[in-house]
Amino acid sequence: MKTIRIGNGQGFWGDWLEAPSQLVERGPIDYLTLDYLAEVTMSIMQKQKARDPRAGYARDFIDVMARVWPRCTQHNIKVVANAGGVNPLSCATALTEVARRLGLSSKVRIGVVTGDDIMDKLDELISQGVPLDNMETGEPLATVRSKVESANVYFGAAPIAEALGLGATVVVTGRATDTGLTLGPMLHEFGWKHDDWDRMASGIIAGHIIECGAQCTGGNCQADWQSIPDFWDIGYPIVDAAEDGTFWVTKHDGTGGRVNVAGVKEQLMYEMGDPHSYLTPDCIADFTTIALNQDGPDRVRASGIKGRPPTDFYKVSISYRAGYKASGALIYSWPDAYEKARAADSMLRRRLETLGLKFDAMRTEFVGGGALHGELAGRPSPDAPEVLLRIGVRSEEKSAIERFAKELAPLALAGPPTVCGLHSGRPKAEEIVAYWPALIPRRFCRPSIDLVSAE
């Protein structure tokens, strides 16, 4: 029975830069996937593109490819990444420049998946009766339309598989689902029918397990974490996928971390709603049908997975401007660290009130005094050696945020004693980018696939 090996070397934009090289160099794989996009990442990239039409993609990806591309070409390792962000074509252009510099122009073909960006279609969609209601609040998009900065449809695995079928050795997408990066190669290699729901669901769950990189190989794992070996050299995840839908989660021999049933279960819980209905554009996966078994050291077998047809909608990730924010911090030392921090917080709030400043929200945390657990932590010990006072504010008025920033530093000399540093410096007003999840009928959008030659 045919099998393929898919390794995921990035769980987010900013993940360990050595991970892709580790996967490519320290053992065999057939596909390297790189997952860069989160909801807020799209809005960041949109801002970059507004400043520079050539920007708007994960630039780290270009450096990664410069390192791993020669070996990928030598060993026939294909790469699938959603690094294209809001500008996949510019990302592909940057890749062609790298390929020429490395002398690989004749050996690579870049598949580019576009069509997910519907920013310029929003008004037309609303006029056609597609309200793009907020999935959490029910509000129509029209209430924030003038503030919208990005709008991207989540495409699935099908366009990735199509690009691979056209001969792409590297596939770059915009806003694709995280799971689609793994399912796409399976569809291409195994020739699964798109209505083979059980196998499709198996690929979805395989992708879900490895989409966050080392989070399924021991990273950020609560289960017996003290015994996990060699965190510093943690191995990134690999799926050994079989044609019948069975797959194994593992990592390269000799790398740190650990792959066991408990750790895989933790990752399965990540971003999961109803376990019977994990919704994707490819299918609906039933997490309650997953059978996990330890199948040797650092090797977990998954089988028995069931799936159902997808809905008639795509999910849309929309971002919009929602005012301004700032946060700053002061550190107070023993004795009476917690009481000093509380007194400073009260003093600052009184000064802001006297100035007539109003904020949509103001939040205070006493790190070292129960910030993570709140009232559950009980009253902090009076002997706490240090407490970090962190205050954040939000407002539609940038001027209010800027004045707040100027009121924090004076507490160091004009407030309670033993401030050991203005931890954050003078805070800066930052624009808030808010997330607006919505649904769109599939008939209103369609992915496009282009092949870009580096020659």
Brief summary:
The protein is an alpha+beta fold and 455 residues long. It is 29% helix and 25% strand. The protein has 12 helices and 19 strands.
Tally of contiguous helical segments:
12
Radius of gyration: 25 Å
Uncertain stretches of 5 or more adjacent residues: none
Described by the principal axes of the CA atoms, the overall outline is globular
Summarize the main sheet. Answer: 10 strands, mixed
SS class: alpha+beta
Helix content: 25-40%
User: Please, what is the average pLDDT?
Assistant: 95
Identify the quaternary structure here: single chain
Q: Quick one: how many beta strands? A: 19
Numbering strands along the chain, what is their spatial order in the largest sheet? 11-12-8-7-1-2-3-6-4-19
Q: Provide the β-strand percentage band.
A: 25-35%
How far is it from the N-terminal to the C-terminal residue, by CA? Answer: 37 Å
What does this structure look like?
- The chain has 455 residues and is of the alpha+beta class.
- Helix content is 29%, strand content 25%.
- It contains twelve helices and 19 strands.
- The strands form three sheets. A ten-stranded mixed beta sheet has the order 11-12-8-7-1-2-3-6-4-19, sandwiched between helices. Strands 5, 14, 15, 16, 17 and 18 form a six-stranded antiparallel beta sheet that branches. A three-stranded antiparallel beta sheet has the order 9-10-13, covered by helices on one side.
- Helix 6 crosses helix 7 (180-190) and helix 7 (180-190) packs across helix 8.
- The relative contact order is 0.14.
